[in-house]
Amino acid sequence: MLNEVYNQRMTNAQMQAQFYLNEKKIFELFNFLIGHLLVDEPTDPIEYLYELLDKCMLFRAGLGEPPLLFTARHVESMFQSLDPGGLGSISLDQYKAGMTTLGIGCYDMNPKTCSAGRVDKQTFEDEAKKCLVSMLSEMIVKKS
Prior knowledge:
By secondary structure, the protein is mainly alpha-helical. The protein is built from 6 helices and 2 strands. The chain has a two-stranded antiparallel sheet with strand order 1-2.
């Protein structure tokens, strides 16, 4: 009987821990930090993470630019890889694949199109940046 109570308490404690980690977006934060480490491969990862978190705090306070994992250059390269012929537009399927590749799950599924079923470069880049900034903001927003 005592063992069952102990196991139930552990389960409750584990549930509380899981709730906390999800509510505070801790897993997303760690993925964000690890992603930056893997992209930049700093010689001093501790100092790098300190500076990255400082940039996040400045952005959260409205005093700095968002330290996005994917910069405008990355987003532009993604578009170019989807548009190897240089047409200046991609299909809706390519648009969706590009957003998924950038790790963006919540985006405008029906963006402004430049012609039937085609998305232009500016629309792709604007939507990607808006979503990346939104994802970062949601992850680092101060919660009480």
